[in-house]
Each structure stands twice: as structure tokens, then as C-alpha cells.
């Protein structure tokens, strides 16, 4: 009952905020990155590869000038959406394809943005040569080690955070057997991946990253146990991240702050790394107001936790969102329309950032 009341108040409050003709003076004409406190990086996925390959438009980042302008203006952090994943950056056993990732890293430097590297140890988007090859355990281990040293080493000093291990647990909090390295080499390979990444770039903050960890449960417990174990063994683990792919079919992430706080209490950084909020189509004003509440709830969670230093949305325009490709009846998940005009969620994020306490980390 109390929860329902709180939710209703939140919706009304946001509706009032959204209905206000002019943004508060504090936010003014600022961008998201300018409105944010300095310690908090505001990021987006940088669109390219993956689902974009099958869409009726050219690869977004290299080809859409307007897209790059908004990316530079609004964000202080960039996450290659697909361009650093194994299948993209390491398409053949003895060939790397660094061009697209290099371009993002160079763009980020030009525009005063940090980069979140994504990702090194994952069950998905691995090249066929890796998934279908026949390797001994020793060879597989060497392949992973070389990949990490090569990719992390190439961008040494230029990456703020690496998603070292991505989605390594299933919904029951068990190690995913689809992950070739975990299946073949055992879960101990996770610690090795962190050690190798740290050797290759001692300044990068190294993260565990997953979805479905926005509410307490077995998956969060599994990550908490793993994080505690790794820290006790002095493995260079620096952060835990919630992807936060949200759907309005479920509730707003009202326990996310509590989840992040558990990892903060271990001395880790935390981050929101892939936030989007999909809704059943068609879009209505009421749904847009509710969507803004979801975005704000996720941002509030990060702002409430001391070591939460990075808040990233998984794309900023519906034009390039992965959501309609995966969820045919849902969409409108980002903060801008196809033409980059802003939704209520954009304004709510910006106003919330502008009003956030400035503090040092
Ligand atoms: O590999 C197949 C290929 O064999 C086939 O011919 C082709 C035909 O459609 O599809 C290829 O798969 C595509 C895949 O990227 C590989 O590049 C999928 O269709 C495509 O939907 C997929 O999209 C990416 C997705 O990760 C893959 O899981 C999205 O662009 C990307 O936004 C998304 O990002 C992930 C994060 O990395 C991790 N967290 C979840 C998030 C959303 O799924």
C-alpha cells in the first residue's frame, strides 16, 4: 500500500515537472553532461555494429553527423555498443579489427569524454572461430589472455572502466555454461581475466556487469558473494554495474539504491551502464511521464550511493535503439525521438542532475 502511494506521488510529481513550460533556471539550456556534478560521468552507448548491421541505415556513428554532434554535446562518457566485442574487434584468430573502436576512443578524447570498454568475457557475440574451434584448455586460456592483453593494452590509459566480466550468472545465480571460457576452464577464469586486464591497464576500473540485478535476489546475492571472494583474494575488482534495461511492464527500480549500496559497502565503485526504459506501443503522454519516473528512479539510485560514478544510457535516440529489434511490441525506450528532439525523460534527467549535490570522490 505504502509502495503504491509512493509510486503515485512520484508519478504526480514528475507529471508536474514535465508539465512545467520552462526548465528550472538551474538546468537552463545546459546539456546532460554540463548539468551533472563533476564526479559523475554521463554516458551513452555509441551506436554501431550488432543489430545496426541489418537495419536500413548506414552504421550510425561514422555516418550520422547530427548524431555525433548530440553525442559530443550531451555526454561525458562513451561505451562502444558493439565495436569492442570479440566478434567485432577480433573477427579472425590472428586478425584484429581496431578501426571502429579506435575512432570512438579518438572522438571521446577530442570531446573530453571518458570511455567504458565493453566487454572481455561474455557468452554472446563471440566469433565463430572461437565458439566453433577445437582448442585444448591451455590454448583457450592463452587465447583469452592474449585477447585481453592486446585489446586492453591498446587502449591503456584511455579507458575509465572496463566491463571485464559480462552477464556471467544466469537467473538462478549459477555460472552461465554458455560462456565458453567458464564452461571449459571453470569459474576461476573470472579472477584471471581481472588480473590480466589490470596488468594490461593498471589505471582502468574493472567491473562486473549484468542485467536483472536491479532488485534484490539470487543473482545479486551471487554477485555479492563473488565480489567478496575476489576482494578477499586480492583480485583487482573495482566495481559492480547494473545494466538496467527496464520495461514499463514491471515496476520502477525502487530498490536499486539498496542493491548498489551493498556493493558500495564492499568498497567497490558502482555504475548504471545500459539504462533504457521500454514501453508497450503506442506511446501516450501518460506513458512518457511514467517513463520519466523510471529514468529518474535509476538516476536517483546512483546519486544516492557514494561510489556510483558513472551513469550510462544504452543509446539516446529511438532512431538507433536495439529495443524494437528484440521486443517487437515495445519501443520508445530512449530519451530522444528519432529526430533527436527530447522526451520528458530527458528533461527529468537533466533537472535531476542539475539539482544533485556536488561532492568530491
Ligand atoms: O550473429 C548474428 C548473425 O549470424 C546473423 O546473420 C544476423 C542476422 O540478424 O544477426 C547476428 O546477430 C546480431 C548480433 O547483434 C551480433 O552482432 C543480432 O541480430 C543483433 O540483434 C545483436 O545486437 C546487439 C546485442 O547486444 C547482441 O546481444 C545490439 O546491437 C546491442 O545493443 C546489444 O547490447 C547488449 C549489451 O552488449 C549487453 N547487455 C545487453 C545489451 C542489449 O541486448
Describe the structure.
This protein is α/β, with parallel strands linked by helices. It has a single domain, classed as TIM Barrel. 42% of the residues lie in helices and 16% in strands. It contains 15 helices and ten strands. It has helices spanning 2-19, 32-35, 60-63, 65-74, 86-89, 99-110, 128-131, 137-154, 180-185, 188-200, 218-232, 256-264, 285-304, 323-326, 344-355; strands at 41-46, 77-80, 114-121, 161-166, 205-210, 239-242, 245-247, 269-280, 308-313, 330-331. An eight-stranded parallel beta barrel has the order 1-2-3-4-5-6-8-9, surrounded by five helices. β7 (245-247), α12 (256-264) and β8 form a beta-alpha-beta unit. α1 crosses α13 and α12 (256-264) packs parallel to α13 (285-304). The radius of gyration is 20 Å and the shape is globular. It binds ligand G3I.
Summarize the structure.
This protein is an alpha/beta fold and 361 residues long.
Question: Which SSEs are present, and which pair or pack?
Answer:
Blueprint: H1 2-19, H2 32-35, E1 41-46, H3 60-63, H4 65-74, E2 77-80, H5 86-89, H6 99-110, E3 114-121, H7 128-131, H8 137-154, E4 161-166, H9 180-185, H10 188-200, E5 205-210, H11 218-232, E6 239-242, E7 245-247, H12 256-264, E8 269-280, H13 285-304, E9 308-313, H14 323-326, E10 330-331, H15 344-355
Parallel strand pairs: 1-2, 1-9, 2-3, 3-4, 4-5, 5-6, 6-8, 7-8, 8-9
Antiparallel strand pairs: 8-10
Helix pairs in contact: 1-13, 8-10, 12-13, 13-15
The chain binds ligand G3I.
Amino acid at each position: 500500500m505504502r509502495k503504491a502511494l509512493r509510486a503515485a506521488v512520484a508519478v504526480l510529481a514528475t507529471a508536474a515537472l514535465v508539465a512545467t513550460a520552462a526548465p528550472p533556471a538551474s538546468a537552463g539550456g545546459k546539456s546532460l553532461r554540463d548539468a551533472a556534478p563533476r564526479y559523475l560521468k554521463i554516458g551513452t552507448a555509441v551506436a554501431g555494429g550488432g543489430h545496426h548491421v541489418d537495419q536500413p541505415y548506414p552504421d550510425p556513428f561514422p555516418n550520422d553527423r547530427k548524431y555525433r554532434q548530440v553525442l559530443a554535446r550531451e555526454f561525458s562518457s562513451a561505451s562502444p555498443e558493439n565495436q569492442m566485442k570479440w566478434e567485432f574487434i577480433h573477427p579472425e584468430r590472428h586478425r584484429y579489427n581496431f578501426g571502429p573502436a579506435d575512432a570512438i576512443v579518438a572522438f571521446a578524447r577530442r570531446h573530453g569524454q571518458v570511455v567504458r570498454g565493453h566487454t572481455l568475457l561474455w557468452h554472446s557475440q563471440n566469433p565463430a572461430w572461437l565458439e566453433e574451434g577445437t582448442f585444448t584448455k591451455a590454448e583457450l586460456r592463452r587465447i583469452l589472455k592474449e585477447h585481453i592483453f592486446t585489446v586492453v593494452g591498446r587502449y591503456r590509459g584511455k579507458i575509465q572502466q572496463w566491463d571485464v566480466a559480462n552477464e556471467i550468472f544466469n537467473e538462478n545465480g549459477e555460472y552461465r555454461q554458455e560462456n565458453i571460457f567458464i564452461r571449459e576452464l571453470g569459474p576461476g577464469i573470472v579472477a584471471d581475466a581481472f588480473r590480466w586486464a589490470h596488468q594490461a591497464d593498471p589505471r582502468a576500473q574493472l567491473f562486473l556487469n549484468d542485467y536483472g540485478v536491479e532488485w534484490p535476489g539470487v543473482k545479486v546475492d551471487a554477485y555479492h558473494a563473488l565480489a567478496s571472494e575476489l576482494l578477499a583474494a586480492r583480485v583487482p575488482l573495482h566495481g559492480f554495474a547494473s545494466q538496467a534495461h527496464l520495461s514499463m511492464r514491471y515496476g520502477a527500480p525502487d530498490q536499486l539504491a539498496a542493491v548498489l549500496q551493498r556493493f558500495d559497502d564492499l568498497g567497490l565503485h558502482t555504475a548504471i551502464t545500459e539504462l533504457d526504459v521500454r514501453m508497450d506501443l503506442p506511446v501516450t503522454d501518460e506513458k512518457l511521464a511514467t517513463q520519466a519516473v523510471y529514468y529518474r528512479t535509476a538516476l536517483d539510485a546512483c546519486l544516492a550511493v557514494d561510489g556510483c560514478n558513472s551513469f550510462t544510457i544504452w543509446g539516446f535516440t529511438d532512431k538507433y535503439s536495439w529495443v524494437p529489434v528484440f521486443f517487437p511490441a515495445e519501443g520508445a525506450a530512449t530519451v530522444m525521438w528519432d529526430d533527436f528532439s527530447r522526451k520528458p525523460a530527458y528533461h527529468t534527467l537533466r533537472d535531476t542532475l542539475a539539482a544533485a549535490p556536488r561532492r568530491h570522490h
